[in-house]
Amino acid sequence: MSVVGDLIVLLVNGLQTGAIYVLLAIGLSIILGTLKFVNFAHGALFVVGAYAGLLITQEISISNGKLAEWGYATIGLEWGFFAALLIVPMLVFVLGLAMERFVARPFYDRPDTDQILVTFGLAIVVQEVIHALIGPRTYGYDVPSTAFGLLPMTGPIGVPLSDVTINVWRLWVIVITAALVIAVYAIVEYTDFGLVVKAGTRDPEMVRLLGIKITRPYLVMFGIGAALAGIAGVVGGPLQNINPEIGMTILVPAFLTVVIGGVGSVRGAVLGGTLIGMVQVTLISLGSVGLGGFEVNFTPWAQVGIYVLAVIVLLTRPQGLLGSEEVSA
Amino acid sequence: MSAILETDGLVKEFGGLTATDDVNLSIEQGELLSLIGPNGAGKSTLINLITRMLEETEGDIRFEGESITDLEPHEVVQRGIGKSFQTASIFPDLSVEENANIASLGAEHGDFRFNFLVHRNSYPEVEQRTLETLEAVGLRDQRNTRAADLPYGDKRRLEIGIALASEPSLLLMDEPTAGMSPEETQATVELIEQLQEELDLTILLVEHDMEIVFSVSDRIAVLNRGSIIAEGTPDEVQGDPSVQEAYLGGVEL
Amino acid sequence: MSDEVKSAEATESGEVDRSPSLYDRWAAVREHEAAVAALTFLGVFLAPLVLVVLPEMLGVPTQYIWYRSLIVLALIWGIFAVGYDLLLGFTGLLSFGHAIFWGTAAYAAGIFSANVTGSPIAMILVGTTTAVLFAWVIGWISLRRGGIYFAILTLAFGQMIYYVFLSPLGWLTGGENGFTGVEVEPLLGFLPLGAEVAVVPDAIVQTWMYVFVGLAAVLAVVVGNRILNSPYGVVLRAIRENEQRAEFVGLNVWRYKLMAFVISGAFAGVAGSLYVIQRSFVPIENTLNWTVSGEIVIMTVLGGVGSLFGPLLGAGLYMYVANIVSGMPAIGDFWHMILGLVFVLVVVLLPEGLWGGLTWLRERAAEAFGGEDR
After folding, report:
1. Above 0.95 for ipTM, yes or no?
2. Residue C146 and residue A65: Cα distance in Å, rounded?
3. Domain boundaries in chain C?
4. Are the Cβ atoms of A327 and B14 closer than 8 angstroms?
5. Rounded mean pLDDT of C229-251?
6. Which residue is closest to A326 within chain B, CA to CA?
7. Residues of B in contact with C247 (CB under 8 A)
8. Could you tell me which residues come within 8 angstroms of residue A287 by beta carbon, excluding any fewer than 6 positions away?
9. Which of A113, A122, B236, C272 is the most exposed place for a label (fewest CB within 10 A)?
10. Residue C314 above 80 pLDDT?
11. What is the mean pLDDT of residues B135-156?
């Protein structure tokens, strides 16, 4: 009986973990595929989203940071979680626009390594600013348990056919992510804007010659990708520890998702993220398993699993599971 | 005279597009064969297939009698096929001398050595070849100039020098006069003719400038939509109606 | 041999060859390499005098002055950085996983010392060999794809090995507590590294540890210089400048890239082994964590990619800021952020790093004062 319950829990946790990666990977993948820009600062957008969400939702007390020294022992707007959900995407969208204009654009013509270096540097600066001002302490979100008194937002709900519970917010994350993925896909496939972006991926020269200003769509695309990362930060926030390092630590799974799924492909990002999320959660959940008489402990390998997966995919299908084959000159 | 390079039923498909369609080309030792055709005819694809930058879909390529389809690009160069690129493909941040040095290293030392603890000056044969290469293209006096600082014409000459340093038996030249002034073009043509004579070089030339093509070529092959539609001496090709049709609206012959 | 070449050149070109004979050039080269070695030697062994003793004498507050073990640490990172620059600055390959080679060497050396022998030289050999093996495998896999995939793959491998050493191999490595069983024995059997060097005044050199690491640093620079003066020096730079062209002069670009990766891994291995010898402890966070990979990138770029001494400057600067500036009032807590900002500025404005900037200044000064035509 509880096997069904355990499986459902596994599925939900895996999908939810994957959802966060998907949100990050879509932005990263589009920026990489369309604008050919490597953004090692994508994680910075995530951590900013998480902290912005934190500070909009509630008040936090600062123990170790500069802000405390300067007299701001507690900061925060205390406008509640819904306000955060609304404001953070817009905030990070604007940040994304700024990033495209001031960081990415000057570097489009510079070699890949320079792009990586400058965005990496930026990510470090963002991390350290947060670290210095707010301090290294880990914070958590106060998410209301119900919305409008009706819909459960967070807290356990029972899984049918079993005696286990899951945090309903995980379900919300999956739902929100799915809605956003569909929205992005629709934009890319069915709007003129999306058409320009897709054409720009194939042949930017041609698009320019057709008299279409490519800078505007690129700017918006970057903003959307950034907003998705910010959303990942604010919806993922309640489910994890918030500290300055999470921007950098989420970067690797995000890039791995892009690489596994295939660059420039929204569906690839979804597939890759889901795969990584499921693998990660499965390995953790397996714990110690008896295999053919031997006790095999999977837990220590939980973190390693996704890297092994990435390496396997990269070696067997270098363009990613849903990526297109690159044609060399 | 024997054929130095032969392609045998060479086909290259990119998804739905057939860029190279059953090409049977044969280049004789010592001749200068020009490959012409309208834009998109597949000239670059053919060159890239020969240099192994692209994998063929079907067919064989034989150099000096041996199939080269299993080789990597650097191995093809070691066998004796050199390529001069469309743009001046040099090493911009290195000096002119270092540019020639690299080519000489590739020629003298083969494709790889473990010699990272041996000083460069222990290889007089490499120095010799470097100097000879610079002399051959008249850039000896600029040996210490940073390659990126050279005028465009000199960059092209350096580029040709690099291609020749390995003393190839067959040289592929991809639009060598693209973007050149009439004087530079003239100088390059003279250089090509001189090289062909002095070094007994076989040359496969891809060019758009028909004046050049008709003055230097021993034979011409015309490519259109991936297949060869005409082949022969300049006179033969000039009179061929299918060639004129292919070029309708394009460059005048 | 030199005479043959000289006369051959004279007859071939039909005029007197103005370029120096082979012997002259050889002499110049040897002088030059020896000069580099001598300069580095002086720099390393005068550093305590200049950085520690002199400021003390001049009355600089103690908390702003270098201390000897910090110089040792800077030298160790400097060795790491010189090798890393061969890969990044000269070959143009950006690896975010170099902590792997530093870290696995550290663990190998440490565990070796606990179970077999603590001879420092043996530890370095074991550590470096381990690093080279890892570099060979990881380079082989990561270099299959070019461009950014290389950076991502090395980052992924770095993380993977970190987690493997943290948990599944925790029984061997000590997990998150690090490996504490390191037992370093006296150098060559009779020179305890912590012991004072007799005869030589304290102002120059205090302990055998300093001598040991100092000599290793000089050796690293000498070897690095030789590599740059070898055919590899031109080949690697050619690959950085125009990979396709390098392939088309007949060079096996992939193998040369792999060699560059392995060589840089070897340098990291030596450095990692020295790190354990100095610390007598292998912490997992300062060895295999991705932050180490990030630090070496910052150090090398700040100091100056594409030069021999730039990375050393970068390592020194980083150590000073991280350990001394971090303790200063007002700006101390912002040290990491400041480094990040300077790093970004360097990438944007000063691609040749601080060493490049210094060289530029030196050349301007030489011009201004009527120096010879360079």
Report:
1. no
2. 41
3. 35-315
4. yes
5. 92
6. B14
7. 73-74, 77
8. A297, A298, A299
9. B236
10. yes
11. 87
The closest CB to that of A112, out of C148, C153, C343, belongs to C148
Distance of alpha carbon B26 from alpha carbon B62, whole angstroms: 9
C39 touches chain A (CB under 8 A): no
Question: What residues of chain A lie within 8 A of the CB of B14, using their CB?
Answer: 327
Q: What is the DSSP letter of A327?
A: P
Q: What is the pLDDT of residues A159-176, one digit of tens each?
A: 666 677 788 888 889 999
Domain residue ranges in chain A: 24-245
**pLDDT greater than 50 at residue A132:** yes
Per-residue pLDDT of B169-227, as tens digits, reads: 999 998 888 777 888 888 888 888 887 788 788 999 998 888 888 888 899 999 888 88
Mark yes or no for CB contact A301/C298 under 8 Å.
Answer: no
pLDDT at C13: 40
Please answer yes or no on whether B121 and C22 come within 8 Å at the CB atom: yes
Please tell me the pTM assigned to this model. 0.89
In this prediction, residue A211 carries a pLDDT of 72
